[in-house]
Amino acid sequence: MSRTGLIAAGLPKGLWDKASDSAAYTKNRLPHKALGGKTPIEIILAKDPINERKNLRPFGQRVSYYDYEVKDKLSARSYEGKIVGYTTTFGTYWVRTADGATKLAKNPIPIILDNESEESSSEEEIPPPEVSDWDQPDPPPEDLGPAAAPKKKR
Fold this sequence. Notes:
The protein is about 25% helix and about 20% strand. The chain is an alpha+beta fold. The chain has a five-stranded antiparallel β-sheet with strand order 4-3-2-1-5.
């Protein structure tokens, strides 16, 4: 789970410890067959599993977060980063910035890349799709007369 998270997020191998922590955090909040469909966090700490799952985010998810430490009025206060860990506070995550620093982020907003909108923003018009024979409704059955009528059993 850790290796897959690092590869999917495009993060360096040096963050294996954070990836492992995130994998364990996630796995402890998912139901297990061996526990009768309950979660380890529910059994060990008696926490509500549904409420605990609301906090889950994909490892390496691109987010935008607000930096509360910026004091200058004209400086940027919103930055992009990738989630690399959880904290004990609900809704607060460890985020890795573009320069490699790790900061706390409260309620970061996911960045959703919409490649389709970038492609459709070109000035050329896209023609409507052609309608094929497969898209047409089936014609009503023809009346074949008495020969096609079902025969009665004797």
